[in-house]
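Whiteboard transcription, Tuesday session. T.W. wrote the structure tokens on the left side:
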């Protein structure tokens, strides 16, 4: 078993210091861009390095790590010599986890539009797992639907679980960079495949079953978010409910809290404001023993948004204060992997939305501006979203020229970001600015916006 051979990489863990795995992964990506590399580093990759599952990075990661920590060697970073890991002798006895990582690190050097070799290597069996790979364009033979599960149950092991978990990471990565519209329908196929796997397979161990259910729940939430962000609210609600049922079936409070957090966000966007408050509170109860102040902070923000939409300034301010207090406790090793997006920019953005809902446009604009200034460009979809929020707030605060400038920045991103939510909000901003068309900057923005054929 991979876990029986892995030796924790304590040297690498010390280098991360007080940063969360997600924050450290973001720092790795920034360092890569500084030297012209491109790596798809996320919190899970950092976790696997620290757990000792990745014993030596590929050449791209090696260059990035040595750039980040000048004067240190791979040995100083806690890694094994490459010849011990990649040589013939090592390959003869390599574990499943090592095989997958070898493919994973190779794929991180490719362009974002290329297929990821990690999932081609991870999806090693036929049946539903192959559908997971094929449906995201990650290897295997493309099929139109999930095949009928076998009547005779087959044993489900680490390879299948890794495939489901890798599909979740791949979806999140594509969403961060490009938005939901272009990948939602593709992503629905691996979700069906994952649940077909649950129905047709017999996990080899209880720990495998737990990971498989958790992976299926997270995959359902990820696909639900793609539906949510692309304006398919009914589909999103169904996916979130499926994730919640899966979490409760196996008593997984982490997936349950995640499902409630997303359900609260969806309820707010759907105009069900009291439901937004209640589901955020339910998420807080699910997360209370998870030792993640940042998760509780996010749930407090979800609750604040519901109160703001209800016009309840007192409860909104109390929830915002609680969110800031929890956020200021800093990151934790218990922070869920999916929360890598939740840093100071998202905190500022969510607070801006609350003030906007209460009609405090100038205050909202200040927070939205801070969100755009702080956001890592890697999260292209979120950066575009923050900018469109800033444009709306400025337009309503009486600064049409500045609003037009922010709107133009959003238009600059639309060739790589496809999100119905962003399109809808940008169209709303254009309508607010329409009476100010005579302002030169506004007129130019409105003409450019009209030429993109965006529809609200």
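and on the right, the sequence the group agreed on:
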């Amino acid at each position: 078993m991979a876990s029986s051979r892995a030796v924790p990489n304590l040297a690498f863990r010390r280098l991360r210091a007080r940063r969360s795995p997600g924050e450290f992964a973001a720092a790795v990506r920034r360092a890569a861009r500084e030297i012209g590399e491109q790596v798809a580093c996320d919190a899970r990759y950092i976790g696997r390095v620290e757990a000792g599952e990745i014993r030596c990075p590929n050449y791209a990661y090696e260059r990035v790590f040595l750039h980040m920590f000048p004067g240190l060697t791979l040995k100083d970073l806690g890694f094994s010599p490459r010849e011990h890991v990649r040589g013939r002798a090592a390959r003869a006895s390599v574990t499943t986890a090592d095989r997958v990582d070898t493919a994973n690190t190779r794929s991180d050097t490719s362009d974002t539009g290329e297929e990821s070799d990690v999932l081609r290597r991870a999806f090693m069996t036929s049946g539903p797992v192959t559908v997971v790979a094929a449906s995201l364009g990650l290897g295997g033979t493309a099929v139109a639907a999930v095949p009928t599960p076998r009547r005779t149950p087959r044993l489900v092991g680490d390879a299948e679980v890794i495939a489901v978990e890798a599909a979740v990471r791949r979806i999140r990565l594509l969403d961060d960079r490009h938005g939901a519209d272009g990948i939602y329908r593709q992503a629905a196929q691996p979700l069906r495949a994952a649940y077909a796997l649950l129905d047709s397979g017999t996990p080899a161990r209880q720990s495998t079953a737990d990971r498989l259910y958790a992976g299926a729940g997270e995959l359902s939430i990820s696909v639900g978010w793609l539906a949510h962000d692309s304006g398919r609210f009914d589909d999103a609600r169904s996916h979130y409910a499926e994730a919640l049922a899966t979490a409760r079936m196996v008593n997984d409070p982490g997936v349950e809290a995640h499902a409630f957090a997303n359900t609260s966000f969806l309820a707010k966007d759907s105009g069900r404001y009291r439901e937004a408050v209640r589901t955020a509170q339910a998420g807080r109860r699910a997360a209370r023993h998870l030792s993640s102040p940042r998760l509780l902070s996010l749930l407090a923000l979800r609750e604040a948004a519901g109160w703001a939409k209800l016009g309840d300034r007192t409860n909104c301010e109390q929830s915002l204060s609680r969110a800031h207090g929890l956020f200021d406790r800093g990151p934790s090793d218990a922070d869920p992997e999916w929360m890598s997006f939740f840093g100071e920019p998202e905190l500022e953005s969510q607070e801006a939305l609350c003030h906007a809902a209460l009609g405090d446009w100038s205050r909202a604009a200040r927070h939205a501006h801070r969100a755009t200034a702080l956001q890592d460009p890697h999260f292209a979809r979120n950066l575009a979203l923050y900018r469109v929020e800033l444009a709306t707030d400025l337009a309503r605060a009486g600064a049409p020229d500045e609003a037009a400038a922010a709107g133009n920045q959003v238009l600059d991103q639309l060739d790589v970001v496809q999100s119905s939510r962003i399109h809808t909000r940008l169209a709303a901003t254009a309508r607010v600015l329409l009476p100010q068309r005579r302002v030169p900057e506004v007129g130019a923005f409105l003409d450019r916006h009209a030429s993109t054929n965006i529809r609200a």
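Someone added at the bottom: Residues 86-151 have pLDDT under 50 and may be disordered.
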